[in-house]
Amino acid sequence: ADLLQRPPLLLGTNGRGGMLRANVSWGKLSSRYDAILAANLHPEYPEDRRIMFTRCRAWTVFQGYSQEISIDCIDSFCFDYDSRGLWRYFIPTGQGEHVLLVVRIEMIPGENAVRMLFSRHLAGGKEGKLADRQQIKLILRPDIEDRNFHESTKAYQGPEHLWPKAVIIHSRGFTFSPATGHLLRIEISRGSFVSEPEWNYRVRRPVDSKRGIDPDSDLFSPGYFTAFLEGGQTVELYAGIVEARKERISHVKNISANIGK
Questions:
Q1: Is there a contact between 61 and 45 (Cβ–Cβ < 8 Å)?
Q2: pLDDT at 261
Q3: Is the separation of the CB atoms in 35 and 53 below 8 Å?
Q4: What is the chain written as a DSSP string?
Q5: Average pLDDT of span 231-260
Q6: Cys staple from 176: which of 147, 149, 184, 243, with CB 3.0 to 4.6 Å?
């Protein structure tokens, strides 16, 4: 009941100025400072953070029955002091059955990166739980930006036309490089990425409204991830923000390693 009435925030850090600030009410945003990943891009000391991965909306689908993963089906939330949060959901799949899905979000120490783990618990043949052999489809749609964390995004000021062109699609994810100097990479451990760009306009942040500052921001989503889960299986979504130069160096190293094989 407390989670429904006054949902708290999970605050995580990476030890170098980066930040994870997620609303326990899944997918909701309370202020412009909420983000799954806000990076500190300076290599030596903390400065204003760069928000690129704002939120991740999620659904499960079974035999055409779609259910949003939201506060409506949350069972519990807990955290530890290593920047990890754990959500437990009892998610209906139709016909009176459900699955227990656990979502864990954690920052990676020393990196401007987060991992999100989606685990379907074993049903063990218990009544009311979907059989483990029955696959559910998991859909994850990331909403992204590229802004200083004190600012807001307005699509009409340029991003509406520029950001879709700044996305490069990979087999298991995408790279978003809207400006020189830094980029966002999001990929899934198994599954696929479907390119389907969309904008969410005027996403309202109620805390900002109470503070008397601009409460509306626009969010861009390049597409969505899909993966299938049986009982006992886990899928990981990784997101990292790096300097564009480091990404090029890593790419060259990978090419050299493959040539040498």
A1: no
A2: 40
A3: yes
A4: -HHHHS--EEEEE-SSS-EEEEESSTT---STT-EEEEE---SSS--S-EEEEEEEEEEEEETTEEEE-SGGGEEEEEE-SSSEEEEEEEEEEETTEEEEEEEEEEEPTTSSEEEEEEEEPP-TT-TTB--TTS-EEEEEEEEEEEEETTS---GGGTHHHHGGGGEEEETTEEEEEEETTEEEEEEESSSEEEEEEEEEEEEE-HHHHHTTS--EEEEEEEEEEEEEE-TT-EEEEEEEEEEHHHHHHHHHHHHHHHHH-
A5: 66
A6: 184
Q: What percent of the chain has pLDDT over 70?
A: 90
Residue found under tokens 């100097």: 181
Do strands 74-79 and 136-148 pair parallel, antiparallel, or not at all (unpaired)? unpaired
The C-alpha atoms of residue 87 and residue 154 are separated, in whole angstroms, by 31
d(CA 139, CA 115): 16
Question: At residue 250, does pLDDT exceed 90?
Answer: no
pLDDT of 2 above 60: no
